[in-house]
Amino acid sequence: DVKVTQSSRYLVKRTGEKVFLECVQDMDHENMFWYRQDPGLGLRLIYFSYDVKMKEKGDIPEGYSVSREKKERFSLILESASTNQTSMYLCASRVMKGGFRGQAFFGQGTRLTVV
Amino acid sequence: GQQVMQIPQYQHVQEGEDFTTYCNSSTTLSNIQWYKQRPGGHPVFLIQLVKSGEVKKQKRLTFQFGEAKKNSSLHITATQTTDVGTYFCAGNTGGFKTIFGAGTRLFVKA
Which end of chain A is more exposed for a tag (fewer CB within 10 A), N or C? Predict the structure, then answer.
C-alpha cells in the first residue's frame, strides 16, 4: 500500500514563527502536492512539485514556500506564520508517467493552529 | 484560472434515499476523479473517468462524465449511514495541476 506520511497530526505555533510541515511518500511518485482545507472551501492547492527540485505555485501560494530536495520528501514552509494560516494541511502524491496521471494518495493531514 | 464548481454544499437525506452531487468545470477536462473523505479522515480515491460520456458503477455508486467533458456527477442509490462524509470531484486538464471542487458533505439520518 502507498503510504504518505505527514510529520505531525496537530501543531500549534505562534504568530511570526517559521513553520515546517514535512511529507514523505514511499512509492516513488513523481508528483507531490500541498493543499489546505477549510470549511466550505474544499481543498485549495498551495504548491505542487512534478519532480525533484521542481516546484510550481498553486492557487494560493502567498505566505508559503516549498522544498523538494529528494523525490520522496516534499516540505511546506510558512515563512512567518499568521493566524489566517490556521487550517488543515494535506499532502498528496501521485504517479505520473507520460500522459498518465494516477490517483492522488493523501497523508492524514496536519491541523495547524497559529495563535 | 480553472475552476471546478460542486453542488450542493450540503445534503441531508434519510437512510434509503438517493443522493446526487454535481461537478462543473469552467474548462474541458482530460479526466475527472472522485474522492470520499470520512469525518476526521483524509480524502480517499474512488474512481477516475476519462472518456466523454463515460458511466461507471461501484455497487450503489454511479459516476458519469459529461459528453463535453466539463461536468460530472456521482449518484448514490439507497444511502446508508456508512455513506456519510464529504465527496469531492477533482479535475485534470492535462497539465500537472489537479483542481478540487469544494465538496458535498452528505449527512444520512438513520
Answer: N
